[in-house]
Amino acid sequence: MFSNTAIGLLSLTALWLNPASATEKSDTGCEVLKLTFPDNTFSPKDAVYEYESQNFWSNNEILSPACVFRPTCPTQVAEAVKLMSLGLTSFAVRGGGHMAITGANNIDDGPLFVMSNLTTLELTQDKKSVWVGPGLDWGHVYRYLGQHKLAVAGGRLSPVGVPGLLLAGGVNFHGNQRGWAADNVLEYELVLAEGKVVSVTAESYPDLFWALKGGSNNFGIVTKFRLATLPSDHIYAGVYSVADIPGFLKAIANFSAFNTDPLAHIVPQVIAVDEETTIGGAILFYDSDSDPEPECFRPFFDLPSIGNTFQKQTLAQFSDETGKLVTPKINDQFIAGTTTGKTYEEILEGVQIVNDVFLAALPELYKVLPVEDRKLISVDWQPIGSLWEKASKKYNPGGNALGLDTETKGTYIAWAEVVEWSGDEHNDEIFKWIEDTTWAIGNATQKAGLYDPFYYMGDAAGFQNIYDGYGAENKQRLLDISRKYDPLRVFQKYWPGGFKIGE
Question: Which stretches make up the FAD-binding PCMH-type domain (predicted)?
Answer without folding.
Answer: 61-232
